[in-house]
Amino acid sequence: MNKNLHRLDLRQLRHFIAVVHTGSFSMAAENLRLTQPALSKSIRSLEQALGVRLLDRGPTGVQVTLFGQRLIGYSELLLSLANEAVDEIDALRGARRGSLRIGSMAAALRQVIPDALIRFSAARPDVALMVHEGTNEVLLPQLFAAKLDVVLTVKPSEILNEDFEWRLVAREPVKIVAHQSHPLAQRKNLSISDLAQYSWVLPPLPETDRLLLESLFRSTGLPKPVVAVETTSINFLTSMISRTHHLAYLTRANLEGSGLGLVALDFNEISLTRDIYAVFRRKGEVRPTVSVLLREIERASGIGATPPAA
Description:
This protein has 310 residues and is an alpha/beta fold. The chain folds into three domains: 5-76, Arc Repressor Mutant, subunit A; 80-169 and 276-301, D-Maltodextrin-Binding Protein, domain 2; 172-274, D-Maltodextrin-Binding Protein, domain 2 (3-Layer(aba) Sandwich), CATH 3.40.190. The protein contains eleven helices and eleven strands. It has helices at residues 10-22, 25-32, 36-50, 66-92, 112-123, 136-144, 192-195, 208-219, 234-243, 252-258, 288-301, and strands at 55-58, 61-64, 98-104, 127-133, 150-153, 164-179, 200-202, 227-230, 248-251, 262-264, 272-281. Strands 3, 4, 5, 6, 9, 10 and 11 form a seven-stranded mixed sheet that branches. The protein has a two-stranded antiparallel ribbon with strand order 1-2. Helix 8 links the parallel strand 7 (200-202) and strand 8. The chain is elongated, with a radius of gyration of 25 Å. The chain starts with 9 loop residues before the first helix and ends in a 9-residue tail after the last helix. The model is unreliable at 305-310 (pLDDT under 50). Belongs to the LysR transcriptional regulatory family. Keywords: DNA-binding, Plasmid, Transcription, Transcription regulation. Transcriptional regulator of the ttuABCDE tartrate utilization operon. Residues 8-65 form the HTH lysR-type domain.
């Protein structure tokens, strides 16, 4: 073990992050209710423990050095884990309710996840749930920094960080949809070539379902679907489909919840499903409440996979 590791102090890391976030020793000292000399001494002690300079004061404010930039992520992770540990212990001894911080893409929030959260709350009424919607680009950095406990996503192929593990927890049917007034809406046994005559509203690449749709078109010798609009918003997508003759795909839950006169088209050539994964920090850091949540999601979806060991 590094001989200087025992000299690191969570208070010093908290002081360092406060200066980084405010860009000012004076503002950070005020927020921390410290004097500026006391804050400066704390930062100097941290720099001495690491043997490098972390912050430089300049005419335009505080500048973070290369060493400081590298320390930011680890400091935020350590501070968040420390808060998480205190939260878990307080919940176990009944001092206050625990919490579970969930990040989810919009596609996972319509049906299976709410059902699972209802089950979870019945099993663990002592735990407050906090659900944040976002994209992988927003949620995964928060998971890495321990600001979230688990992320629910449909794109595990994009997750390259070796500190993450993921598990399939739900599988939802995906339907090709159009407005009920669409020329294809009343036809039966449609083929892919029928779909190729119309433009689409689709999420941007490399969204997994879109890649699968394009591969199905190519497998029949057809060019990729013509994209009229790209969007990451389910609300905007359903609104566009309800007002045009564009096509799109939705999970059955999103289709049933749209209320805009959208229908699933009838054909036998395509069978699409959307896989939802739970992404969490490696097994040594999985909280017991995360394991309970994954079990309830699997029960609600019928997947029946075994959750990670706590």
